[in-house]
Amino acid sequence: MTTRTVISPQGYHTGKCGYCGSTLAAPPKPPKADEKAARDEDGNLKGSETLVDDDDVLKAIEPDGNQSYYVSASTLSVEDYQKLLDRGWRRSGKLLYKQNRKASCCPHYTIRLEASKFETKRDHRSTLNRWNKFVLGEEYVKQVARDAAKDKELAKKRHAEKLATRNATRELEIAKKAARDAGLKEPSSLPPKLTGDELEKMVHACEYSTLKTPPEPAHKFEITLEPSNFTEEKFLLFRKYQVEIHHEKPSKQTHESFKRFLCESPLPQTTGKTAADYGRKYGSFHQLYRLDGRLIAMAVLDLLPNCVSSVYFLYDTEFHKYSMGKLSACREIVLAREGGYKYYYLGYYIHRNKKMEYKANFPPSELLDPESNVFHPMEHFVPADKSFTGLNKYRYFSYDEPTESCRDCDPEDPGVEKDPYEHRKTALSGYDGRFHHLWDRRMPGITPLEDMRQMPLGDIHIRVGNVNAVANQLRGFDMANIEEENSIVRHMGEMAAVMGPDVVMDAVVEL
Ligand SMILES: [Zn+2]
Questions:
Q1: Between 420 and which of 125, 245, 281, 406 could a Cys-Cys bridge form, CB atoms 3.0 to 4.6 Å apart?
Q2: Could you tell me the pTM of the whole model?
Q3: Given a cut of 70, is residue 30 above it in pLDDT?
């Protein structure tokens, strides 16, 4: 690895949830000594009412708002970012974050699928067909069909296709008989399947560079992939999209905000050097969609050792009816397959969020378990039969640690049988109303405090201004304790626990 990751801890923050709008009530502060001794006008001690009661403590850790741990990265190797994705992290520009799923109202689940195993549905096929028809135009399609009909080779192929259809009819009969024998409902049709090659053909079918011309298609559609640099044209598309789709104020969409969000990246542009990935592109890219020369859509993508990761997708709202999001996902899966990237990461999946539903429609997808950081099939979290289990039952669900799952707590709702916060109360014996360190917050998927105590945090490489050193050279570092509030040891230890000790021990930490 030639690139060394350079990071700086930004700490744990709570804020408004961008999905449901919930905010977190500030955690109760412990009474100060002088407040404890405060007296009322009659001179009586007010002591008892300033003590933090159990209800307040519980309120402070009840899921509400968005709670995340942040790190800024000036440089991040693609290998390290791959590790972070697989630990539930994401990036926005140069800011990296991992949500505390257990304590946030809308838990974010990392979702991915193995690109070669993607099973298209009829829906994907009709979306691709509709777009191809629009781009190519009726005239072009007819002319090409006329030309092709003359082709003898094609006639042979047609014959083979007919045979295949006949085989499909036979397969359906077999499936029906099997269902009858098993006492199950007979299928009315076999699920439509597109083989890998067919999906690739459909995705590329409308690209000008692949067309046989003349005749000329109705529109000239071009796709290019370039480093995530700023251009005014991209910015104008972004502003239109944010205003029209996300109803944001035009005045808030500045060059700077666009650059920070979708152009800047800590990932260096590199190419694969090993036999297995020679020449493969890595880094942050913009995939541009041009129609008759005009920029109509743009995908922001991270190309990493094990995946194509979708960062963002924006398009001209004029083309909204063509389901651009779905088209782009199909195109990105094809990019992953053709480029040799094993997985396609669709970002985060939030259950019960309408805008995220389409992400569940790219089988066979997997979700990252928030407790164990292991990927499991989507069905383990969201049962295909819609039964009242997994995320259908729990707001926060872990397949590997099911006892950690929590339901929404509503004492007024008779549908909720049991206090879902029972385990938290137990965990909080001796809790004084403050979060002394990250482990107090019971953030899932981080390295346990016991393990962090064993970690040689003093060996971490640090940079202060222009000076390179190791943490142990900082005054008092070896004397401080990982649990000590505001100590540098604690900041380092927390960051290593959330990012993974292997990433932080190899990085340079800027202070
Ligand atoms: Zn929310």
A1: 406
A2: 0.82
A3: no
Sorted by sequence, the CB contacts under 8 Å of residue 432 that are 6+ apart come out as 30, 52
Q: Nearest CA to 95 among 266, 299, 219?
A: 266
- Cα(54) to ligand 1 centroid in Å equals 24
Q: What does the pLDDT look like over 172-211, one tens digit per residue? A: 777 787 778 777 777 676 555 555 678 999 999 999 999 9
Would the pLDDT of 81 be above 60? yes
| Residue 497 tokens, joined | 């626990």
How close is the Cα of 348 to the center of ligand 1, in Å?
13
Residues 6+ apart with CB under 8 A from 350: 19, 106, 107, 108, 109, 356
**Rounded CA separation 300/93 (Å):** 11
Distance in Å, CA 403 to ligand 1 centroid: 22
Q: Ligand 1 centre and the CA of 28: distance in Å?
A: 21
Residue ranges near ligand 1 (ion) with Cβ within 5 Å: 17, 19-20, 22, 105-106
Using CA atoms, how far residue 182 sits from 185, 384, 385, in Å, is 9, 21, 19
Distance 426 CA to ligand 1 centre (A): 26
CA count, 13 A, side-chain hemisphere, 320: 6
Report the C-alpha gap between 397 and 406 in whole angstroms. Answer: 7
Ligand 1 centroid from CA 211, angstroms = 46
Cα separation of 91 and 97, whole Å?
Answer: 6
CA of 354 to the centre of ligand 1 (A): 13
CA of 470 to the centre of ligand 1 (A): 40
